[in-house]
Structure formats: structure tokens, C-alpha cells
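Input record, target 12 of the design panel.
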């Protein structure tokens, strides 16, 4: 009896719901005011019978929770406009529209804008032109120019030709760089130089360069704490490469007559100097991506010899060791990048090195919180730490720490001589690689804002 009653009630409710639904359908179908008026009561009774009261739940934060959440709220507020812009850009496919306008259909040639913020020249703008498939033979030709003013500019060109089998290349390049706002800090070179004791000078550096890139057989086993088979499965084959290079440079350094009288005897290289440079670069690369690495590492060894061709005063050797390592953290959502560079120059007896070829720290690629060319000496050691975390599909946040020092001899290094900077920033990237980075660096000597289209770990 009870079951029959429940079935009867359920059937009555179903009939009411069907009836109300049919009436509403007829109302919208015929749009009759009389029909709407006549059915209002039936629909009202039906909805009242089946209506459910919804209670809204609200979570209230206490003052301590609000204080703890303040850094997150500030960060969210700072990136909110950028996030909205990215959403809009993805919806209208603005990146593809821009690329369609600037590049050819197959993306092998075109023109791209360039800009830099920071450094001695402030803001500079320019463009790069390239064609990576000339005559359908994988020959690459490129050139770029970036200008801050008439006295501050850079122009360069290069051509790359495949030779001697797959992966081997021969390149020829040239570059002209002029800047009349460079500085030497301190009366003497070294860590003790003072930022207020600076000497301004102008430099014009022109060179032509030839490089032979040889890609050898892939190594086997373990190296740089990396399993080669695992890294190869994750998207990039490892390789051992060699670069042989020859370079001819002409460097001119200008200072005013009044400033020239204050130059210490230990700072050499003013006037015009022609240099011949040649060397060898050995690299073992296990990074899973060249422009946006997340795993693997890089070991690069460089040896170079330089000799003055218009005199017998400058001659030196340079040795550089660079080590990079990338580790994914927190289920591969974040990346910790590390770089160590040890650089040392040696001069034979009765020979010297021009100050602009010394080991230099302080730039958007070394100590990002210090001015360009802040510290220089015969050798240097540099450590960079980058912690990268995702913000959106096309950009990620960066927290970094840089520390390093210069030295005359290895024995001069000490913990108290390290110069440390830190900062935050954003890296913009495309699905195929790195695009640009916007960073703010801080140190005990002040702060710097940088916008660069090159990554610090190259």
C-alpha cells in the first residue's frame, strides 16, 4: 500500500513537471499574452512545490590569514593586467597574426623587432632580418641593427653554410659596436674599486670572425649527473661539439684630455689597437632544449690566444670553464637553473692585456644588480641561480641570485670578496623557444631594470 502511494505521488509530480514544461513551451511558441496570464498560477504552484532553498557558503579570513595572503594578493594584482592581455591575445590569436605579418609562410625568413632596456645606453630599438633557407640549401643569412643614439649602436651580420656532413657548419660574421658611455670604476682594477670613482670613455669595436662548428658522435654513459638515454627520450639528443674560430678586431678607446691625465698606469689599452684572436671551444650538451632548457646540463671549455698585430705590447691567453645544470622541481612544474663560470687570463713576460679584454663582471648577463663593467681584473668567478615557475602558458616568473668576484691570481679569492645581487622578473617564451626577459636586479649599490631578447644562460 505504501509503495503504491509513493508511486502515485511520484507519478503526480512527474505529470505536473511535464505539464508545466509543455505550457512554457507553448507560451514561447505562440507568444500569447492571454495564455501567459492563464498559466501563471499553474507554473507558480509547480515551481513552489519543487523549489529547493540554496544557502550560500562564505569563508571568512581572520586578520592573520589576510596578512599571510598579502604577498600572493600583491603578486596577483601586479600580473592581473598581463594575464588579461594574454587571454585576449590567445583568443584573437594575436601572436599568429603578428608572425604572419612579419615572417614568410614557412617561417624561414622575415624581420623581427628588437629592443633593450638597461645598460649604459638606456633604451635601444632595432630589428633583425633573416633567411634560414637560402636557395633551399639550408644556408642561413642574418643581420641586425640596434640603436640608442648616433654614438651608441650595434650592427652585425652573419652567414652560416652546412659543410662536412650533417650537423657541421661554417660561419662568417662581422660586427660594429660603438658606445660613448662606458665606464671604468675605481682608480685600480679589482673588487675594491669604488662606484663613485669612475672614468668615462668611448669605445668602437669592429671585428670579422670565422667559425667551424663540428658536431661529433653522441657520447654514451653518464655525464653531468645526467642519464643520456633518459634525456634523449625527453625530446633532445645530446652531442659533443667543437668550435674552431679566428677573429680580427680593431678597437678604439677615446677619453677627453682632462680625463686621460687621471688614468692610472695599471689601466692599459687607450687609443687604437688591432688584435688577432684564435681559439678552441669544446662542449658537451645534455640540455633537453637549447632555448628553454628544463633538464640536463652543459659543460663548455674555451681556450683562446690573442696577439696585437699593430704593435708588440699586448699578448695574452684566456681559459674559461662554464658549467650549467637544470633540475625540474615539484612534479616538473618548476625549474632550478645553475651556472658557474671560471675565467682566467695569463700574459707572457713583458706583455700586457688591454683593460677591455679583462674578465668583467656587471651586466645583464653576469651580475644583474650591478652596473655594466662594474668589476674587472685578470680573472673572475661567477655563480648564477635562477628559479623559474609557471604563471601562464606563454610566460613564467623568475627569482634569481647572482654572486661573483674578480681576482688577479687564484690565490687572491676569498669569501669576503664576493659581490651578490638578486632580483625578480618574467620570461616570455613561445612553444618553440625563448623570446624575451624582463627583470629587475638589486644590490647594495642600487637597482637596475632590464629588458633583453637574450637569455642569461646561453
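The sequence produced for target 12 reads:
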Amino acid at each position: 500500500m505504501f509503495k503504491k502511494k509513493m508511486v502515485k505521488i511520484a507519478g503526480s509530480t512527474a505529470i505536473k513537471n511535464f505539464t508545466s514544461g509543455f505550457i512554457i513551451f507553448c507560451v514561447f511558441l505562440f507568444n500569447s499574452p492571454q495564455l501567459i496570464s492563464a498559466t501563471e498560477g499553474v507554473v507558480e504552484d509547480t515551481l513552489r512545490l519543487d523549489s529547493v532553498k540554496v544557502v550560500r557558503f562564505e569563508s571568512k579570513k581572520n586578520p592573520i590569514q589576510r596578512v599571510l595572503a598579502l604577498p600572493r594578493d600583491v603578486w596577483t594584482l601586479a600580473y592581473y593586467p598581463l594575464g588579461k592581455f594574454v587571454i585576449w591575445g590567445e583568443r584573437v590569436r594575436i601572436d599568429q597574426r603578428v608572425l604572419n605579418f612579419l615572417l614568410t609562410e614557412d617561417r624561414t625568413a622575415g624581420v623581427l623587432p628588437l629592443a633593450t632596456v638597461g645598460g649604459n645606453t638606456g633604451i635601444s630599438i632595432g630589428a633583425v632580418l633573416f633567411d634560414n633557407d637560402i636557395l633551399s640549401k639550408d644556408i642561413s643569412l642574418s643581420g641586425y641593427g640596434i640603436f640608442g643614439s648616433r654614438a651608441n649602436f650595434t650592427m652585425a651580420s652573419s652567414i652560416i653554410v652546412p659543410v662536412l656532413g650533417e650537423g657541421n657548419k661554417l660561419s662568417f660574421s662581422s660586427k660594429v659596436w660603438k658606445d660613448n658611455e662606458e665606464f671604468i670604476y675605481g682608480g685600480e682594477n679589482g673588487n675594491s674599486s669604488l662606484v663613485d670613482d669612475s672614468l668615462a670613455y668611448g669605445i668602437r669595436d669592429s671585428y670579422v670572425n670565422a667559425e667551424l662548428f663540428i658536431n661529433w658522435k653522441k657520447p654514451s654513459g653518464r655525464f653531468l649527473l645526467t642519464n643520456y638515454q633518459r634525456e634523449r627520450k625527453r625530446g633532445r639528443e645530446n652531442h659533443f661539439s667543437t668550435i674552431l674560430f679566428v677573429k680580427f678586431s680593431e678597437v678604439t678607446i677615446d677619453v677627453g684630455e682632462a680625463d686621460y691625465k687621471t688614468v692610472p698606469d695599471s689601466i692599459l689599452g687607450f687609443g687604437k689597437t688591432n688584435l688577432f684572436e684564435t681559439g678552441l671551444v669544446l662542449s658537451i650538451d645534455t640540455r633537453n632544449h637549447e632555448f628553454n632548457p628544463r633538464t640536463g646540463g652543459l659543460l663548455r671549455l674555451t681556450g683562446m690566444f690573442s696577439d696585437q698585430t699593430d704593435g708588440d705590447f699586448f699578448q695574452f691567453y684566456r681559459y674559461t670553464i662554464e658549467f650549467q645544470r637544470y633540475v625540474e622541481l615539484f612534479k616538473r612544474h618548476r625549474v632550478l637553473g645553475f651556472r658557474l663560470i671560471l675565467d682566467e687570463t695569463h700574459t707572457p713576460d713583458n706583455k700586457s692585456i688591454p683593460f677591455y679584454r679583462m674578465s668583467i663582471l656587471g651586466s645583464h648577463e653576469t651580475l644583474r644588480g650591478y652596473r655594466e663593467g662594474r668589476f674587472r681584473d685578470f680573472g673572475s668567478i661567477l655563480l648564477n641561480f635562477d628559479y623559474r615557475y609557471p604563471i601562464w602558458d606563454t610566460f613564467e616568473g623568475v627569482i634569481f641570485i647572482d654572486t661573483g668576484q674578480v681576482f688577479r691570481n687564484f690565490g687572491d679569492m676569498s669569501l669576503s670578496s664576493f659581490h651578490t645581487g638578486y632580483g625578480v622578473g618574467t620570461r616570455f617564451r613561445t612553444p618553440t623557444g625563448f623570446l624575451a626577459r624582463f627583470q629587475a636586479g638589486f644590490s647594495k649599490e642600487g637597482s637596475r631594470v632590464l629588458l633583453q631578447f637574450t637569455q642569461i644562460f646561453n
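Residues 172 and 210 are 5 Å apart (CA to CA).
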